[in-house]
Specification:
It is a single chain. By secondary structure, the chain is mainly alpha-helical. Helix content is 73%, strand content 0%. It has five helices and no strands. The chain has helices at residues 2-7, 10-26, 41-63, 72-97, 105-126. α2 runs antiparallel to α3 and α4 (72-97) runs antiparallel to α5 (105-126). The two termini are 18 Å apart.
């Protein structure tokens, strides 16, 4: 059962990306907790397009992968690449800031992203070859 769950790791990760993509697209002010200013229309457009649209596109691709003739290994490797690269980048960016003002949020989020990426990577290795 666990192996089957891990083989399909890309599906809940797709859902996470779709939810956050739709949320960011519909309400870019959700990014205020990162200190991102969304008062300018051009900023809201960019956030909707880059973050909302990007997450939504990745999530839909992961979810619809079977219809696109992508196998589970490919889909899990895509999910692993996304979550691991974002997690590593977030942790490196937080360490470069060297500021107590950033708090624990980027460290927690980076750890969660690495955990999700690791689960997707495990899904890659146990998926049907």
């Amino acid at each position: 059962m666990l192996t089957t769950l891990v083989r399909h790791a890309h599906i809940p990760f797709a859902a996470i990306l779709i939810v956050f993509g739709v949320w960011t697209f519909s309400d870019p002010a959700v990014l205020h907790h990162y200190g991102i200013d969304t008062s300018e229309p051009n900023a809201r457009i960019a956030l909707r397009a880059i973050i909302g649209g990007g997450e939504l596109g990745l999530g839909v691709t992961l979810l619809a992968g079977k219809f696109l003739k992508l196998d589970r290994r490919t889909l899990n490797s895509m999910a692993a690449t996304v979550f691991l690269s974002v997690g590593v980048s977030r942790l490196l960016a937080a360490s470069l800031e060297r500021s107590a003002a950033i708090g624990m949020q980027p460290w927690r989020e980076g750890a969660v992203e690495l955990l999700l990426g690791g689960a997707a990577l495990l899904g890659y290795f146990v998926a049907d070859k």
